[in-house]
Amino acid sequence: MHLRTRLKHLALAGAALAVVTASLPGAAAADSGDRGRHPSDRGLSAVIRYTEYGIPHIVAKDYANLGFGTGWAQAADQVCVLADGFLTVNGERSRYFGPGAAPDGSLSSATTNLSSDLYFRGVKDAGTVEDLLGTPAPAGPSRDLKELMRGWAAGYNAWLRKNRVTDPACANADWVRPVTALDVARRGFAVSVLGGQGRAVDGIAAARPPASRPSAARPAAGSGATAGKADGPSAPGPEAPDPARTAEAARELFAPENATMGSNAVAFSGATTANGRGLLLGNPHYPWQGGRRFWQSQQTIPGELNVSGASLLGTTVVSIGFNDKVAWSHTVATGVPLNLHQLTLAPGDPTSYLVDGRPERMTPREVTVAVKGGAPVTRTQWWTRYGPVVGGLGAQLPLPWTATTAYALNDPNAANLRGSDTALGFGEARSTQDIADTLRRTQGLPWVNTIAADSAGHSLFTQSQVLPRITDELAARCSTPLGRATYPASGVAVLDGSRSDCAPGSDPDAVQPGVFGPARMPVLRDTPYVENSNDSAWLANADRPLTGYERIFGTVATPRSLRTRGGIEDVSAMADRGRLTVADLQRQQFANRAPAGDMAAADAAKACASVLPEDPEVCRVIGAWDRTVNTDSRGALLFDRFWRKFTGTVKPADQWKVPFSATDPVRTPHTLNTEAPGFAQALVDAAAELRAAGIALDAPLGAHQFVVRNGERIPVSGGTESLGIWNKAEPVWNAAGGGYVEVAHGTSHVQAVGWDGSRCPVARTLLSYSQSSNPASPHYSDQTRLYAGERWVTSRFCEKDILRSPGLRVVVVRG
């Protein structure tokens, strides 16, 4: 860059900073109690400095102004995705897209727009989020968070008012419109209940009483049949669910390997590093499309907050990030943030249930949803003292409402709007102790673990979740026959709803009733490493197993996933080697080692010769594979397709000859069982599949594992969960399209963070799918190409580094 241009940029940035720190107008009068009005942006402004890859560094004088800049900048990159999400939380998808289409799954498990709308419209009509906003802190959100939400909505609206939408996904769409602070809070609520009510949206929307009492549902005046008619009593339902089948369905439903969200994270203490300071590698696995994407920024209020990292779209805070003293990441936890209450219904009245022998009426909530091209749809939802009645947890786990029994869902996170306050506290933290104190004070995380490291050399793992306070003693005393099967298998408790003494208890240090307090959470401090890859807390450090927690948190002494086992092997070896730096974290992220290959490829190749003597090429390719999932790895694609078929048809207990041992959990089970029924067929089917698609068995992985951006094919490394890959990529198989043509979910926002004694953290980041979802944006695929090349962004955290950015662009945004 020419000196004159550089000086001009420096002058612009300096002037912008002066505006923020000295002369920004005061925030407009607080409108945190917004009940539908668009918040005023009078007096709101922020400075946004854009550095390489479109990463905004937002500076403002207070939280309302910081929210304003954040809402503006998110809208600039992701307006269509954000607008789509606001339709969701307002229950208006059917109005614009029709009732039968499917949402993107980012804000609930709903399988249709109608189901989604019935749930979220019900939340809206009940004033649930308004009640949470009115709850005083610490049980409710803080004033700072309310100001952030007010500012975010104003900033988003200001961007809409002053800019033309160019993203073809929503250009000229009438559903792209201004929002309120309440809309922002509703989105936060949806994120909070993802693991609870959000998992049961279809079951809440579809739950209907049997035909025992015709007056159980009231028709809507003027409503028509089918689309427009209120739900009346259903025909008599099926028999009670089978405990064994339900337990297996619950286990599969809550199994980490079946989730579309996951993660790895490791923190190293100063005992393992080159300079005695901590290190953190965060590698969350999240969807690559839709509203659950991350978005990068730095948020600064001079003298109060200075944090860099990633936010979930539509949220106001940095969720995973770092500052000059501490870094943290999250992994999806095994704690089950819901439970069921099995209701004993009053004789002859399926909408009344017994508690301690006395009948209680369910509360009907009639919900009406507008539908594109048709009459409005009205349904009745049924609520109890425990929560909503549900007809199931997904199609695989039905919970039929019969004349004698119904099931109510308890989700304590439906009373939790504190997650963003937890993130704010992390941003202000100066140590891992501050991280732990923030978790104790706010208790806002619904479904994740926290892994952290700090510049003083401390490490921290904690599974601090908002979980229903179901102890093993309570489950033993109060489980129904169904619960006695589901609780050990999955952590899903089914309690006797007819007894008031079977409701979850409360801990004295809990911020809300009915949940575990901070003292009950699994915690591990200052071990050489702490690591989690979505298994339970048990082996956060394999040399210091965590035990003593209740089953609802997760299992102890049970088989670990291959990703956990491979991760522990890697990070424990790193800790033993010592003298670690940020560069070691970067190498671990893209090592692309396939633990399943190390354990099974040689045995598979050897056995292949006897089961497929007529096809020696299959055996040769698997035997020659380098056991990695790099883009140039030959044989990786064949083994991947074989392994998916083998593990999909052969039971886990039959896959290995040497079974699991709790005394050797990282190395067992092992030795591939090549005599298992299904082994030979998996090899045959994998080879036939590739050949039918015109793919050579030894084709390099990157030739057939790729994403397409604006017509450019971008090869990507990584691999599936069952192979044990750290750098997870879960792509969509399309043989006719040439192989894996898109990544559905996997590595998302990666950060490798350390400290060198200066005021600036040593940080490298990467956002695999890039900042913007707009194909016209220069930041639609720039970091995707970095990810494909296994290259990183050097974080510009300190002022001197921001101002030296060769692509520095300064924008002052005002209301």
From TrEMBL:
<keyword id="KW-0732">Signal</keyword>
<dbReference type="InterPro" id="IPR002692">
    <property type="entry name" value="S45"/>
</dbReference>
<dbReference type="InterPro" id="IPR029055">
    <property type="entry name" value="Ntn_hydrolases_N"/>
</dbReference>
<comment type="similarity">
    <text>Belongs to the peptidase S45 family.</text>
</comment>
<dbReference type="Pfam" id="PF01804">
    <property type="entry name" value="Penicil_amidase"/>
</dbReference>
<dbReference type="InterPro" id="IPR023343">
    <property type="entry name" value="Penicillin_amidase_dom1"/>
</dbReference>
<protein>
    <submittedName>
        <fullName>Penicillin acylase family protein</fullName>
    </submittedName>
</protein>
<keyword id="KW-0378">Hydrolase</keyword>
<feature type="signal peptide">
    <location>
        <begin position="1"/>
        <end position="29"/>
    </location>
</feature>
<dbReference type="InterPro" id="IPR043147">
    <property type="entry name" value="Penicillin_amidase_A-knob"/>
</dbReference>
<keyword id="KW-0865">Zymogen</keyword>
<feature type="region of interest" description="Disordered">
    <location>
        <begin position="206"/>
        <end position="247"/>
    </location>
</feature>
<feature type="compositionally biased region" description="Low complexity">
    <location>
        <begin position="206"/>
        <end position="228"/>
    </location>
</feature>
<dbReference type="InterPro" id="IPR043146">
    <property type="entry name" value="Penicillin_amidase_N_B-knob"/>
</dbReference>
